[in-house]
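Researcher: Go.
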Amino acid sequence: MKKFSVMAGMLLIVGLFTACSSNNNENNLEDELPELNVDFDVPETADPKENVHLEALVTYDGEPVEEADEVLFEIWESGNEDDSEKIEADNEGEGVYTLDYQFDEDGVYEMYAHTTAEGLHTMPKKQIAVGDAEIPDDEDDEDENNEHGEHNM
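Model: Structure:
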């Protein structure tokens, strides 16, 4: 019985060391993985029928992505995501993807910059108040809090 207790204790210690070691390796691996980053620039306000310049700077591991697999702007009036419009962005070079867009009516509009590159997909979300509309205070930080992370393809 004494041998069993000693063996069980040794296995427990070895198991703890192994678990700690694999956690450290996972954390180091995550720190070293390159990131797909999209800096999605959208004005806070606009007037109806005004040309609005939307811009996404796409980088991977800190370098501009010259040829993303896809950069698509999805735009809808707040509360009507089912009626969204998806438009392919223009590749301006040096990782910059743009779209000039006109909002027809007053309202709060939301948009994603669906971006696929280097086998990853990310879709940061932004809002814009058009005309007399105002973004409610409880939704002010929505683009920061509702940004979708990277997903492997």
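Model: The chain has two domains: 1-33, 36-152.
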